[in-house]
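Q: Two folds, back to back.
A: First:
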Amino acid sequence: MTIESSKAVPLTCRGHSRPVTHLDFSSVVDDDQYYLISGCKDNNPMLRDGVTGDWIGTFIGHKGAVWQARISSDASLAVTGSADFTAKVWDTNTGENLHTLQHSHIVRAVAFPDQPRPNILATGGYEKKLRIFDVTRGTSNSGSSVGQTDASSASFEIGAGVHQGIIKSIVWGTDPNVLVTAADDKKVRWWDLRTNSAIGEFELDGLVGSCELNKLSNGTGNGVFSIAAGNSVYFFDGLHSRQLLKTFKTPYEVASVALHAETNRFVTGGNRDTWVRVYDFNEGKELDLHKGHHGPIWSVTFSPDGKLFATGSEDGTIKLWKFCDHQYGLWR
């Protein structure tokens, strides 16, 4: 980490009134533009300009905490999972709720495949069921403008009875036929959609904090699955199932982690402190410490161009941290 970027003052994005649970960037869509979506316990996921953090809109409709929010690679759709027992699909241009997918318990995890305006999505949570939905199929049971669908009739389940804990995260791999789940049974599992079965499993040292796929900013390569669990962080190849690249132990409980592969750096957020730490990926040495949040950091993610990273905290704020040597965005 260079002196300039480590000293740059972070941008603070306000608007949420309760803890921020999850953050997700779109890909770069045009003219170096990209977007950021946030999940929050205030029930109201928000869309922002990814470069500046400026608020664009709020998706209104959930009646419980939003535990996870994701945006499609082309930023045309968003999906959110909530404590109100639903997952919702949104049009990001209009804010319209396109689909409401009813579950029988809290939805903790949602995922899109890496494709423009995806037709399918995955959900998981307290049901301990990995479900796949086809959102192109007719979903309205009542003739209303928003299709409300019961999950048991509109989806199919993969690996029935396998998950023995709450599914905390679902991530599509570089291979569109492979999904990864991380659950509170301390297991990470790889699933093949062609056979609807598990093709790999890895036992973690602690409860899952985060599980995300981190890609190179130029869009090439396999990407890396970055996982925070207990006092450890794990890095797996994004294409080859179960290929563990590295793991590091930390003296504190890790809530979130993200890898910046081009610079061989990774960033963590603490579960019981308020600090953002930057590490060397080759040696596991702590390089920098960022202060500014006033609560645990539940989510950390790099922008698609790798020039900043975002953190979401218990304190209800999102912060954008510069991660490059030159002028960028509002850092002049």
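A: Second:
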Amino acid sequence: MTYGHRCDLVFRMYDVGHSVPCEFGASEAGAKDEDTEGTKFISENFYKLPRVLKDMLDCLSEKVNLDQRLTSVRSVDFLHSGLACVLIELERPTTYISRIKRHKTIEIGSSISQFNSTVLLALVAIWTCCKIIK
């Protein structure tokens, strides 16, 4: 699918007999740890990723031909910046309104003493993403 923006990672599923994949999520990554005031973080978090997720949700709704079940379909995204990540979720409560939900920023500790307590939160975010996709 072409949305006008390129993402670092795209979640997609191929169906048997279909040449066009079903895309339902994306991810962007930054190599260095950037604050929430950084230019790359702001442009990807508030401009690029919401547009990509909205385009994915539009294609999903056309492909699946959803009418009444449109409110149950959501697209997800992870925004990575160094050892921090944010889960972004886009849903459509009505036909013409899209709502973005940004989950709490999760930072994985860089030292061994902080690793155990912080990696559990990251695993919970991944589990939440899997539950949203199903």
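Q: And?
A: Helices lie at 39-64, 112-133.
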